[in-house]
C-alpha cells in the first residue's frame, strides 16, 4: 500500500478528504442543572430537521453538520449549528460541555426519553433504557465521519493490480483503516479522552472508579455494548454476518445498537454495504473537549484525519485480524482507566505511532501545521498534563470541581453565541443578510450548502426540494428579466409610469450637447441630474430649487463621467422611505436618518458619539447592522457649518447631524416605521412591485406627508427606485423600532412547507 | 394663444409631440402589375396583427406604426415594418410606391376585396365598392397621427384662465388646429402632392383631367366623400352631431366613412369624443412620396409637425368657422388641379404662411434644421419643379412614364429590404439578435416597443399580454437565480457535477501562494488555468500536455490579473460545440472554426480572403453574422508559422488557418451542425440545462468523437460552460449549413398563442 501512496500523482490526493461531524450535548440551566423543558419548538418538526435533532433524551441535543471537504469547513458548520441551537433555546439554558452528563435525577423515570413523532423511535429508546439503563444513555460525544476523496480512491485503484472492482477495493481500504483504528485507538483515548470523572447519579450505586481516569466514556464504565458483542472486521461479509447474527439472536435489538468505536458506513442498512461498498467510516470514540467552544477543535479534526491516513499507510499488524481487534479493546480499556496525570503504559508504542505519522507526512510533503500537530502529540505523550483529561485534572487539583468547569465553559460559549445575534459563527465573513438567512434556514432544518462563499451563493434543500440563493434574496422566485428592468432606471420609470404610478418626470441624454440644449426645459424647477446606471449616489447632483445654466452644465459633466447616458429628472421633495415588498406584502418600511447625536445638556458631542457607538449593533466594515459614527473631517466640517465643535456640550434634546447623507454605512440610523404607515402606501408599494413583475424588491418612495391618503391627494408620493437585491439585515436589526425578520419571509417563499408554526 | 405659447416654460414643451403613421400600398409584381396573390400567410392572423393589415383590397397592405415621441423614431418603425412587409411577401412582389394605384383590372369584380375574418368588415368594404366604385378605393396614402405632448397641454392649461376642465381645453386646442389645417391644407397639397397622373383604368371612362395635376388623390377626382357631406368643426358637439346626422340619414354608412383630411381622434367612437375629449388629430391628405423608401421622408414628418404647431399658433382667420372650411376645400381643390410645374395661384398666401412659421420658430428658439425645412418650402414655392409632383413631372417630361418611375423606385426599395436580411431597417444600430427578434415579432403582429435602445430592452405585447426582453433572449421565462449560477463557473460546475454531468475537475484558488502550493496536483496532466468570472477567453492559459512549474506560475499570474479567484481545471480534449437549448429542446448546434481559406490551386491567399469576404453575411463591427477576415499582423504571423506568405498560391483544397481562436468576431466560420448529431448529445445538453434550471441557454460541450454513443462510452463529453444570454444571430445566419431561426423559438416561448401555423 505504501508503495502506491508514495507515488507522485497519489500523494496530493491522499491528503484530501470529506468530513462530517455529529455532536451530542445535554441541555442544562445556566447553573448546570439538567433542563426540564422540551426541545425548542422554534426548531420546528424534528423528523425533518437536518441539523438539530434529539438523541436519547429530550434534553440531549444532537448537532449534525453536512459532509464537506476541509476540516475548517466542517468546524464552521458545527459552529454555526451550535449557535443556532443555543439561540433557539431559552436564554436561561445552555449546553453542558462535557461528555459525562450533568447531575442526573434521583429517579431514573425522571429522565425524559426524546419526544419523537415516530413511535418506533420511541420504542427503540425504551428498549435501550431497559437494556442499558437510562443513565448510561445520557453520555454524549462526537461522531466523526471520514471519507477519503473520490479522486484519491480512483487514482489508487488505477495503480493497483489486485482488485478489478472499485467498490470492493474501496471496502478493503476502509476495512483496513477500521481494523488498525480499533487496534490503536487507545492513543486517541490517551490524547483526547476528556471524561475523567462523573457527576452524581451517573453510577446507580457506588460502582465508580475511586480515582479520576482518562476517559470514563471510553472505558468499560462508558457507553459500550454488552461483552458478548464481537463483530469481525476481517471482511465485509463477516462484518455483515456477525451483526446480522447478533440481531437475529437478540443480543442486539437493531443494527444501530452496535456501538463500535468505528462503524463502516454506506447505504441505508448494514446489508447494503455488500452491494454499494463501504463509503466512509464513522469514528465514535471522541469525547467532548470542554476547552473547545463546539466540543472539538480544529487541531483535533486534523489530528484524527492524519491518524486515519496513517491507519491506511500502516501495514496490517499481524495475521489474526480478529485478535488485533481484541488487543485493541484491551489496550484501550487499560489506557482509558489510567490516571489522567500518570504516564501511559503504552508510551513506547505511542511514540512509534507518532514518529511513523511524522515520517508519512514528510513523504507526503504535507503542510507544516500537520507536523506541528504530531509534535504536540509527542509532547503530550511525555507530559500527561497536556492531554485533555490531564488539563482537566490539573484544574481539579487546583480546587475547581468538574461542575464548576462545565458551568464556566458552558456559560462562556452561550454568551459568545448571543453576543452578536446578527452574525453566524463560522460564516462571519459573509454578508449579514446571508448570515441571518443561513441562521433561519438551519433553525428550520433546511440543509445549507455554501456553494461559493465569496459570492454569497447558497444551496438550500428541504424535503427533497432544492433552491439556490445568492446574496440573501436573489432566488428562483423572481424572473430573470425583472432585475434587468430595475437595473435600468429609464425602463423602470417607463413601466411604472405606463402602469399609472408617479415617477419623477425627466429625460435621458446620451451627449452633453443634447442635454445642454434642453436646459430651458428644466430651467424653472427642482431637478436631479444622475448617471443612468451607476448606483450608490455616485455622480448625482440635486438642485432642490432649480439650477443655473452653469450649475446644470457642471452637474452634467460630473454625471457623464460615470455613464454614457445621463438622466435629468424633476426633483420630488419629501422624505424617502424604503418599502420592502415580498410575495405581495409590504413587510417592512424603513426610514434612514443621517448620523446624528441628541444632546443631554451635560455631555459633549464627542462623548455623545462615544456613548452612541457603544450600541452592540454598531460595528465596522458591514459586519454589524449599523456602523460606528466617525468624527472625521467630513463630520467636523458638517458640525462647523452648524456652529459646533466636537467638545461643545449639546443642549438637552437638541439633535445635531454629522452627515448630509443618510446611508447606514456612514453611521446613519435605521428606523423601522412599518407600523407607522397608512395601509394605502403599503398597497401602492405592493402594486408598483407587481407592475415590475417582482416577488422581492426594496422600493424607495418619496413621501411629502405620510398622514395624507395617497388615493385622495395628488402628488402624495413619487417612486424613485426599485432595488432587486435589497438589504435585509437593517430591517431585521434596526436602530430603532421593532425588527422585521425578512429572512423568514424569504424562506417562507422558497419553502412554504418548512414554515414553523408555534 | 400666442401669448401663452411664447412663455418661457411653455416653449420647450410646445416642440414635443407624439407621432404615429399609417401607410397604405398596393402589392404588385416586380414589373408593376397588381398582385394576384393573397395577403402573405406568414403574417398570421390579420385580425390580431398590430402592424401589417389589409385595407380595402386584398392587395392593399396597410402598415401601422406605434405612437412614439420623435419624428426619427416613427420613421424607424415605419422602415422596420416596411421591411417586415416586403420580406414577408413573395420575393417576386414589391410595394407600388405611388398613391395612385397601378393599372387596374378591366373588370371591377377582379379587384379582390380584402379577405377579412370579420363578416362586418367585408360587408363594409362591399358597401364602399357599391357607393364609390372599387377603383377609387384602390388609392393609397399616408395617415399622420399627431398629438401635442401631455406636459405641453398641462402647462398651457395651467397658464390660461378661460377653461376649468383640461379635457375641454384640449378639445378646443385640436379643434382650432383642425380648422386652420383644413383652411390652409392647400399648401401641403402644393408641396407634398405626388399624384399627378393615373395608370390606366383608374378612371372608368375618360373623365380624367387632360393635363397632369399636383395631386389627383387630393383633388375632387380622388378619394373624397360625396358632395353633400359637410361636417362642422366649430365645436365638438357640432362635429359629433353632424357626423351622427349624416349616418342617421344614410349619407354615410358608418362614422369611419367620413373622409375628412383631418379627423378628430379620441375614444373608440366619435360619440366618445365628448366625454374623453379630443386626444389627437389624424391628418389624411398626405400622398405617398415616391422618392422616400417608406413613402414619407423625415423632413416631411417634421414639416407637418411645424405646420400643425403653426395651426395652433395662428389666430382663427375669421368668425364664420364653417365658411373657413369651405374656403379651405375650395382652395385645395384649386391647387390640387394646377399643373405640377406651374406657379401656384396662392403663392402669396403660401409665402405669408411660411414666413409666419419661420417667425414662430425663431420665437421658439427651435433647432436649425426646422428653419431649413421652411426655407426649402419657400424655395419650392418659387420653383414648382422642387415640389414632389414637380419632380415627378420633370422626369415625365424627360420621357419616363409614371409606371417606369414606380417600378424603378419600387424595385430599389425592395432590393434594399432584401439586401441584409439579418438586419432591420430603423434599428440597425441594435444587436443583430435583437433586430432579428424584432423582425419576427413584427411579422407575427406582436407589438414592439423599444424601451431602451442602447440597452436592447424591448417591450412586446400581444393579445393583452406583455413580455419584456433584453438582449434578445433574457426574459421572464428564466429564473433570476439561473444566470447568477451560470455567471459563477464554480457554482455551475458544482451543480452540474452533483447532477451527474461530466465537468472539468479542478480547484478554485484565491491566492497565488495557495495555487502554487498545489502544483503537484496538476503536474502530470493537461490543464486550463482561468480567471473565475471573466469571459471572452481573457486571461485563460491552456496546457494540453501539462505545464512546467514556471509556465504554471506565469499562467496563474496572468489569470490573477483578471480576477481575485482563479480556477485550475483539467483539460478535456476534443472539439467544442455550442448547443442552443430552449424550452427543453436542443434547437441548434454550432461548430466554430478559426478564420481560414481553402485553396483552389490558382489564387493567392490574399485573393482567397478577398473572395471569401464577398459573402454578404460578412461585415464589420458585429453588424453582420460573420466578420470580414483580416490580413493583419496576427494573421500574417500565423501564416508565417505555417510557412506561407499572403501572396502564395494555395494548393487546391488545402485549408490554411489565419487565426488560432475560433471566434466569429475575428473572422471565424460558424457551421451549423444541428442535424449531424446523435440525439443522445442533444438529450445531454437538454438535461444539463434543466439541471441548471434554465429555459434558454447556450451550453458548450467538448466532444472528442461525436459518433460514439455517450451513454455507452466513458468521458465522451465534458461541459465547459453554460451561457445565459447566448448569441442567436450566428445560428440564424450561419456560414455553412441550414440556419435555425431561434428568435422564433423565443417568441413561441413568450407568446405561444402568436405562433403562425402555415
From TrEMBL, chains A, B:
<keyword id="KW-0460">Magnesium</keyword>
<comment type="pathway">
    <text>Sulfur metabolism; glutathione biosynthesis; glutathione from L-cysteine and L-glutamate: step 2/2.</text>
</comment>
<dbReference type="Pfam" id="PF04262">
    <property type="entry name" value="Glu_cys_ligase"/>
</dbReference>
<keyword id="KW-0479">Metal-binding</keyword>
<dbReference type="InterPro" id="IPR040657">
    <property type="entry name" value="GshAB_ATP-grasp"/>
</dbReference>
<dbReference type="InterPro" id="IPR013815">
    <property type="entry name" value="ATP_grasp_subdomain_1"/>
</dbReference>
<comment type="subunit">
    <text>Monomer.</text>
</comment>
<dbReference type="GO" id="GO:0005524">
    <property type="term" value="F:ATP binding"/>
</dbReference>
<keyword id="KW-0464">Manganese</keyword>
<dbReference type="InterPro" id="IPR014746">
    <property type="entry name" value="Gln_synth/guanido_kin_cat_dom"/>
</dbReference>
<keyword id="KW-0436">Ligase</keyword>
<dbReference type="GO" id="GO:0005829">
    <property type="term" value="C:cytosol"/>
</dbReference>
<dbReference type="GO" id="GO:0004357">
    <property type="term" value="F:glutamate-cysteine ligase activity"/>
</dbReference>
<keyword id="KW-0317">Glutathione biosynthesis</keyword>
<dbReference type="Pfam" id="PF18419">
    <property type="entry name" value="ATP-grasp_6"/>
</dbReference>
<dbReference type="InterPro" id="IPR011761">
    <property type="entry name" value="ATP-grasp"/>
</dbReference>
<dbReference type="Pfam" id="PF01071">
    <property type="entry name" value="GARS_A"/>
</dbReference>
<protein>
    <recommendedName>
        <fullName>Glutathione biosynthesis bifunctional protein GshAB</fullName>
        <ecNumber>6.3.2.2</ecNumber>
        <ecNumber>6.3.2.3</ecNumber>
    </recommendedName>
</protein>
<comment type="pathway">
    <text>Sulfur metabolism; glutathione biosynthesis; glutathione from L-cysteine and L-glutamate: step 1/2.</text>
</comment>
<keyword id="KW-0511">Multifunctional enzyme</keyword>
<feature type="region of interest" description="Glutamate--cysteine ligase">
    <location>
        <begin position="1"/>
        <end position="336"/>
    </location>
</feature>
<dbReference type="InterPro" id="IPR006334">
    <property type="entry name" value="Glut_cys_ligase"/>
</dbReference>
<dbReference type="InterPro" id="IPR020561">
    <property type="entry name" value="PRibGlycinamid_synth_ATP-grasp"/>
</dbReference>
<feature type="domain" description="ATP-grasp">
    <location>
        <begin position="493"/>
        <end position="751"/>
    </location>
</feature>
<dbReference type="InterPro" id="IPR007370">
    <property type="entry name" value="Glu_cys_ligase"/>
</dbReference>
<dbReference type="GO" id="GO:0004363">
    <property type="term" value="F:glutathione synthase activity"/>
</dbReference>
<keyword id="KW-0547">Nucleotide-binding</keyword>
<dbReference type="InterPro" id="IPR006335">
    <property type="entry name" value="Glut_biosynth"/>
</dbReference>
<comment type="function">
    <text>Synthesizes glutathione from L-glutamate and L-cysteine via gamma-L-glutamyl-L-cysteine.</text>
</comment>
<keyword id="KW-0067">ATP-binding</keyword>
<dbReference type="GO" id="GO:0046872">
    <property type="term" value="F:metal ion binding"/>
</dbReference>
<comment type="similarity">
    <text>In the N-terminal section; belongs to the glutamate--cysteine ligase type 1 family. Type 2 subfamily.</text>
</comment>
Amino acid at each position: 500500500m505504501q508503495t502506491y501512496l508514495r507515488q507522485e500523482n497519489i500523494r496530493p490526493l491522499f491528503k484530501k478528504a470529506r468530513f462530517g461531524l455529529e455532536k451530542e450535548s445535554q441541555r442544562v440551566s445556566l447553573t448546570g442543572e439538567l433542563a426540564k423543558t422540551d426541545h425548542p419548538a422554534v426548531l420546528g418538526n424534528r423528523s425533518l430537521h437536518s441539523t438539530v435533532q434529539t438523541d436519547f433524551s429530550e434534553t440531549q441535543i444532537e448537532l449534525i453538520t453536512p459532509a464537506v471537504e476541509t476540516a475548517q469547513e466542517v468546524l464552521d458548520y458545527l459552529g454555526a449549528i451550535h449557535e443556532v441551537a443555543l439561540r433557539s433555546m431559552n436564554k436561561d439554558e445552555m449546553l453542558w460541555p462535557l461528555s459525562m452528563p450533568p447531575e442526573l435525577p434521583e429517579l431514573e423515570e425522571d429522565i425524559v426519553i426524546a419526544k419523537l413523532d415516530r413511535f418506533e423511535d420511541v420504542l427503540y429508546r425504551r428498549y435501550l433504557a431497559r437494556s442499558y439503563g437510562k443513565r448510561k444513555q445520557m453520555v454524549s460525544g462526537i461522531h466523526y465521519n471520514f471519507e477519503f476523496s473520490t479522486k484519491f480512491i480512483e487514482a489508487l485503484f488505477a495503480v493497483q493490480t489486485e482488485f478489478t472492482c472499485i467498490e470492493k477495493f474501496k471496502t478493503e481500504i476502509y476495512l483496513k483503516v477500521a481494523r488498525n483504528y480499533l487496534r490503536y485507538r487507545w492513543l486517541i483515548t490517551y490524547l483526547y479522552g476528556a471524561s475523567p470523572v462523573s457527576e452524581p447519579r451517573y453510577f446507580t450505586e457506588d460502582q465508580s472508579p475511586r480515582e479520576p481516569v482518562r476517559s470514563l466514556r471510553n472505558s468499560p464504565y462508558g457507553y459500550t455494548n454488552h461483552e458478548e458483542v464481537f463483530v469481525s472486521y476481517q471482511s465485509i461479509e463477516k462484518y455483515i454476518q456477525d451483526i446480522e447474527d447478533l440481531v437475529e439472536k437478540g443480543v442486539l435489538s437493531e443494527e444501530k445498537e452496535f456501538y463500535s468505536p468505528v462503524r463502516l458506513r454506506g447505504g441505508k442498512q448494514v446489508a447494503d454495504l455488500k452491494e454499494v461498498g463501504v463509503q466512509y467510516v464513522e469514528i465514535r470514540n471522541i469525547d467532548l473537549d470542554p476547552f473547545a467552544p463546539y466540543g472539538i477543535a480544529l487541531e483535533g479534526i486534523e489530528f484524527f484525519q492524519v491518524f486515519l491516513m496513517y491507519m491506511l499507510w500502516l501495514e496490517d499488524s499481524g495475521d489474526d485480524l480478529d485478535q488485533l481487534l481484541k488487543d485493541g479493546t484491551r489496550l484501550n480499556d487499560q489506557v482509558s482507566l489510567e490516571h489522567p496525570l500518570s504516564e501511559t503504559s503504552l508510551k513506547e508504542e505511542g511514540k512509534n505511532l507518532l514518529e511513523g505519522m511524522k515520517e508519512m507526512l514528510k513523504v507526503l510533503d504535507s503542510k507544516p501545521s500537520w507536523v506541528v500537530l504530531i509534535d504536540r502529540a509527542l509532547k503530550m505523550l511525555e507530559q500527561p498534563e497536556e492531554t485533555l483529561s490531564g488539563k482537566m485534572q490539573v484544574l481539579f487539583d487546583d480546587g475547581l470541581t468538574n461542575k464548576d468547569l462545565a458551568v464556566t465553559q458552558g456559560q462562556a460559549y452561550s454568551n459568545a453565541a448571543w453576543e452578536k445575534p446578527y452574525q453566524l459563527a463560522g460564516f462571519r465573513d459573509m454578508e449579514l443578510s446571508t448570515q441571518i438567512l443561513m441562521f433561519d434556514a438551519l433553525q428550520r432544518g433546511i440543509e445549507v450548502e455554501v456553494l461559493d462563499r465569496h459570492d454569497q451563493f447558497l444551496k438550500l434543500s428541504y424535503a427533497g426540494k432544492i433552491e439556490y440563493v445568492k446574496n440573501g434574496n436573489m432566488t428562483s422566485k423572481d424572473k430573470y428579466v425583472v432585475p434587468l428592468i430595475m437595473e435600468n432606471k429609464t425602463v423602470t420609470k417607463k413601466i411604472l409610469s405606463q402602469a399609472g404610478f408617479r415617477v419623477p418626470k425627466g429625460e435621458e441624454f446620451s451627449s452633453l450637447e443634447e442635454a445642454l440644449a434642453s436646459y430651458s426645459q428644466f430651467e424653472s424647477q427642482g431637478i436631479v441630474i444622475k448617471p443612468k446606471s451607476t448606483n450608490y449616489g455616485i455622480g448625482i447632483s440635486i438642485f432642490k430649487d432649480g439650477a443655473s445654466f452653469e450649475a446644470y452644465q457642471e452637474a452634467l459633466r460630473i454625471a457623464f463621467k460615470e455613464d454614457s447616458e445621463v438622466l435629468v429628472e424633476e426633483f420630488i421633495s419629501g422624505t424617502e422611505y424604503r418599502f420592502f415588498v415580498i410575495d405581495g406584502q409590504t413587510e417592512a418600511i424603513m426610514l434612514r436618518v443621517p448620523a446624528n447625536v441628541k444632546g443631554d445638556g451635560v455631555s459633549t458631542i464627542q462623548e455623545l458619539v462615544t456613548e452612541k457607538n457603544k450600541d452592540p449593533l454598531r460595528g465596522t466594515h458591514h459586519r454589524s447592522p449599523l456602523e460606528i459614527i466617525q468624527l472625521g473631517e467630513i463630520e467636523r466640517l458638517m458640525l462647523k457649518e452648524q456652529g459646533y465643535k466636537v467638545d461643545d456640550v449639546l443642549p438637552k434634546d437638541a439633535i445635531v447631524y454629522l452627515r448630509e447623507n443618510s446611508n447606514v454605512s456612514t453611521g446613519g440610523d435605521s428606523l423601522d416605521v412599518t407600523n407607522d404607515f397608512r395601509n394605502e402606501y403599503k398597497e401602492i408599494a405592493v402594486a408598483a412591485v407587481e407592475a415590475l413583475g417582482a416577488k422581492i424588491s426594496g422600493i424607495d418612495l418619496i413621501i411629502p406627508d405620510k398622514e395624507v391618503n395617497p388615493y385622495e391627494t395628488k402628488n402624495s408620493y413619487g417612486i424613485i427606485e426599485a432595488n432587486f437585491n435589497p438589504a435585509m439585515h437593517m430591517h431585521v436589526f434596526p436602530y430603532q423600532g421593532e425588527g422585521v425578520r425578512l429572512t423568514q419571509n424569504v424562506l417562507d417563499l422558497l419553502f412554504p412547507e418548512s414554515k414553523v408554526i408555534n
